[in-house]
Every structure is written in C-alpha cells, then in structure tokens.
C-alpha cells in the first residue's frame, strides 16, 4: 500500500507542476484572443465542479447546470451595469442569485431523485433558453445584451489590450484556485461527509441524525453557486450575455465532462476539462488530413466539437468507466488486493 501511495503522489505532483507551468507560460506565447480562449477553458472547471458537488458528492443527478451558469452571467451583468455595482460585488451577487436558484431546484429533490430528478433538471435546461427571451431587461432578449462596464487592468499595468487580457486571465485563475480550495475543504468537512452519506444511503443518513432537507438544499445551492461563478467570470472575460450560450447541449456537455473526469473527485473536474479540450484540439489537427479515403471523411467530422466530444466520451466510458480520476482508485484497490 505504501508503495502505491509513493507512486501516485509523485505522478500527481508532476501533473500539477505541468499544469502550473502551462498556466505561467500561456500569457507569453498567446495572442489576446488565444489567451481569452484559454481563460474560458479554465473557467469551465467551475461549472464541472458544480455538477460534481451535486452528483458526485450529493448523489443528485443534474443535467441542467448550464442554467445556473446562465443565471450567474445574467445576474452579474445586470448588477454591474444596471446598478453600477463594483465588479467584485456584482460577481458576489451573481453567485448568490445562482445559489438561490439552485436552492429552489433542491426543494423538489426532497421528494424525487434518480432518473426523475435528472429529467426535472433536463426540462429546466430545455425551458431556460426560450424563457430567458421573455426578460430582455435582464437577459437582453433574443439579441443578447452588451455590458457597458469593463473589467480593465489598473493603470499601472498599462492600457494595452494584452495588459487587460493578462489581468483578467490572472484574476480568473486566482478565483478558480480559491474556489477549488474552498470546495476541497468543504468535501472534507462535516458537511461534506453529510453529502456523501446522502449519496450512499439517505435512509441511513437520516437515522444517524443528518437533516435531509437541509443537506439536499444546501448541496444543490453550493453546486449552483459554483456554476454561477463560472457564468460571472464569463462576463468578466467577455462583457456580453446571450441566451444562445446556454443551450440544452451546453448543460449536457458540462455533465458529460464531469463524468469523463470522474464523479466524486475534485481533481476529476480538472481532468475532465483537460480531456474535453484535448479532444477538441486533436479534432482540429486531424480534420485537415487528406488522402486516406474513408478515413479522411471521418477526419472531416472532427471539426465538429460535438462529434469529437461524443466520440471521446464513448471511448473513455469503455476504457475508464469510473472516469479519469478513477484510475488512481482502481490502482489502489488492485494494490490492496
């Protein structure tokens, strides 16, 4: 067992070091557009982490977390523009708004669970886009809404586009790291143990004195708040909100990313986003290949992100049914046996 741990921890350290080196080097090798795209990838970790809290730790399947990303984005844009609040306060209000929306969804979860809860959250994702068109003051309606406020770099960093891009990049990284740290502390606290008890056996959890109503609502609220934070940072990055960004497919992709990375693992949320991004990059590289007959026609499909992600999900489901983070658990079990 000690040998297994000694093998695993260095590998984790190498992975973290590589990610850290990649994050440090990005501003020096990227254009402003590329840096914004990379920052969007980093922000996506928060939405996947929200699904992981609800499903991986709380045992409540949610296929509609894209809704909470949208609520966080719309609310942040509304508060920073309509009420002229400072950015940090507007982001906080966006998180609170998304958390309250999650709490409302968590209430029906008191009576329904499993596939029925999954269908409820999926229906929520289906109606969110057409419903958001009905509130143009909040969402911008059909055409979306440009946010006049800008999250710009302080004057001492310069007034160039790259300076502002790097400033937003660093800000988003720090927020994501802070959220990951808080989540890690949460799942290893008494509240986290209550979440896992709900997931494993809610009847036994109730017998041991866990308040099921409080635990379910709080779990869903926290998971929605993390997704809302992702939406708020999207507004920081791109001052524009639109209902077109929060489709049913987006919610399903967020859930699938969590499954790929590994449910019930904070590290799995990061791995899932890395895998999703890697599939997309691989698809772009292979889509231009010609001269291989039928294989070339298959490669042409790889310029479609949904196709690449679907194929990757199928492949990883067969190879790693417990997700990428489950590889470590499997190694531990084999070593112990």
Q: Globular, elongated, flat, extended or rod-shaped: what is the shape?
A: globular
**H-E string:** HHHHHHEHHHHEHHHHH
Mean pLDDT: 84
Main β sheet profile? 2 strands, antiparallel
Number of strands: 2
In the residues, how many domains can be counted?
2
Spans of at least 5 consecutive residues with low confidence: 1-8, 332-337
Strand order of the largest sheet: 1-2
Q: How many helices? A: 15
How would you portray this structure in words?
The N and C termini lie close together (10 Å). Residues 1-8 and 332-337 have low confidence and may be disordered. 75% of the residues lie in helices and 1% in strands. The protein has helices spanning 2-29, 32-57, 65-82, 87-106, 115-132, 136-139, 161-187, 190-200, 202-207, 212-237, 248-261, 266-286, 294-300, 305-319, 326-336; strands spanning 145-146, 240-241. The protein is an all-alpha fold. A two-stranded antiparallel ribbon has the order 1-2. It folds into two domains: 36-246, no CATH class; 247-337, no CATH class. Helix 3 (65-82) packs antiparallel against helix 4 (87-106), helix 3 (65-82) packs across helix 10 (212-237) and helix 11 (248-261) crosses helix 12.
Write the layout of secondary structure elements.
Blueprint: H1 2-29, H2 32-57, H3 65-82, H4 87-106, H5 115-132, H6 136-139, E1 145-146, H7 161-187, H8 190-200, H9 202-207, H10 212-237, E2 240-241, H11 248-261, H12 266-286, H13 294-300, H14 305-319, H15 326-336
Antiparallel strand pairs: 1-2
């Amino acid at each position: 067992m000690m040998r297994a741990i000694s093998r695993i921890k260095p590998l984790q350290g190498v992975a973290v070091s590589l990610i850290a080196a990649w994050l440090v080097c990005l501003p020096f090798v990227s254009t402003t557009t590329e840096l914004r795209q990379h920052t969007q990838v980093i922000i996506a970790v928060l939405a996947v982490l929200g699904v992981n809290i609800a499903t991986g730790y709380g045992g409540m399947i949610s296929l509609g977390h894209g809704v909470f990303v949208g609520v966080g984005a719309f609310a942040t844009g509304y508060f920073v523009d309509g009420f002229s609040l400072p950015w940090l306060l507007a982001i906080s209000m966006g998180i609170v708004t998304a958390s309250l929306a999650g709490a409302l969804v968590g209430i029906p979860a008191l009576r329904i669970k499993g596939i029925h809860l999954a269908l409820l959250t999926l229906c929520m994702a289906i109606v969110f886009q057409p419903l958001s068109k009905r509130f143009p003051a909040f969402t911008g309606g059909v055409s979306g809404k440009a946010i006049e406020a800008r999250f710009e770099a302080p004057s001492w960093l310069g007034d160039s586009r790259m300076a502002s891009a790097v400033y937003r990049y660093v800000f988003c990284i720090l927020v994501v790291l802070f959220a990951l740290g808080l989540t890690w502390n949460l799942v290893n606290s008494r509240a986290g143990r209550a979440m896992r008890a709900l997931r494993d056996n809610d009847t036994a959890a109730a017998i041991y004195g866990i308040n099921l109503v409080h635990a379910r609502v709080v779990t869903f609220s926290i998971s929605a708040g993390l997704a809302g934070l992702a939406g708020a940072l999207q507004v920081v990055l791109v001052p524009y909100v639109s209902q077109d960004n929060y489709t049913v497919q987006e919610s399903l992709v967020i859930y699938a990313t969590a499954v790929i990375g590994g449910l019930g693992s904070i590290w799995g949320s990061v791995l899932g986003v890395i895998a999703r991004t890697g599939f997309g990059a691989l698809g772009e590289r292979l889509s231009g290949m010609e001269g291989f007959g039928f294989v070339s026609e298959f490669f042409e499909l790889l310029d479609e992100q949904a196709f690449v992600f679907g194929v990757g999900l199928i492949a990883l489901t067969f190879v790693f049914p417990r997700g990428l983070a489950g590889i470590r658990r499997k190694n531990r079990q084999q070593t112990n046996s």
